[in-house]
Input
Amino acid sequence: MLVVYDSRHRLHSDPRGRHPESPSRAVKVLESLTKSEFSNQLSFTGTRDPELDVLLLIHDAEYVEFIRRESSKGFHYLDPDTYVTEYTYTLSASYVTTTYYEALKSLEDREPVLIIPRPGGHHAGRSGRALGAPTLGFCVFNYAAIAAVAYLKRVKSVLIIDFDAHHGNGTQEIFWDDGRVVHVDIHQEGIYPGTGDVVDVGSGAGVGKMINIPLLAGAGDETYMWVLDEIVSRLVEVFKPDAVVVSAGFDAHVGDPLTSLAATKITYRSIGAYLGGLLERGSVGSVSTIVEGGYGDGLVAGLINYVGGLLTRCSHPDNVKAAPAGLSKRVREALKSRLSKYWGIEIKV
Ligand SMILES: [Zn+2]
Output
């Protein structure tokens, strides 16, 4: 597996050291990968120079120019959550450009790719704040979206799985009415950015293809395993995506300081193993994983287990079970009706 990491990410930093999205996160992730039992299966690369044409595949020209201009002014906050430094534009744009080309290459090589970008990306919409979110949520450019767009240059259908604890509103906005992308977003209900209700299903060609799964605080492995078995794997059988993009935030891990979910390494290893199995069997041509959030010890614990699962490439059991208590009754019933209506998938609630 190719791992993309640019050590210049340290230049995107709040000098007061108060921001949870700090350089130490990516440093710890890299160290854990290089020391892991599967390090011999990893190769590492830096980033390419930014290409404006690539950025414009997912963001408006005015927004790209806004970020470039704000970044050139040096360190300051764009909104209460999101800062830039004089290096942020080049850094994030380099990651977007590299993600684009490595996703294309991954499709040819049939090898998964892991991107470790900073800052994160999934809250950044086409022109910045997305779906009415109050801020950019630490993000400036959207890496998951560019990976999906790269795939769509070569194939017809892409599945995006976003298991960051926060709703991937930027990604969802970009593909809202696209029709070629199914976006499954598993997040904690009621926290930032306040989007991603179960009744939000996309529009136009995208109707039914935005699948939001808001979880109650405290939801853990039992709930994630149910979502994987009863929704994701059955959806894959019907939709038959050519490639998969994963927005892999690890802030749903129990103990994360920003959220109240309770996933453990079991969840992350299972998701990784499921996706590795799809790749192994040739069910999908490529899996690109973008690291998003994760602000406690769960970042490294979750990531190592996810990557370990992906490289182990197990098959996944198939058995229909009733929805667990990590989903509210309203969400369970809404999911049941929508999955039946748009996909012919009958779930037990
Ligand atoms: Zn998050």
Observations:
- The beta strands are 2-4, 43-45, 76-77, 83-84, 113-115, 158-162, 181-188, 210-215, 243-248, 287-291.
- The chain has one domain: 2-343.
- The first strand starts at residue 2 and ends at 4.
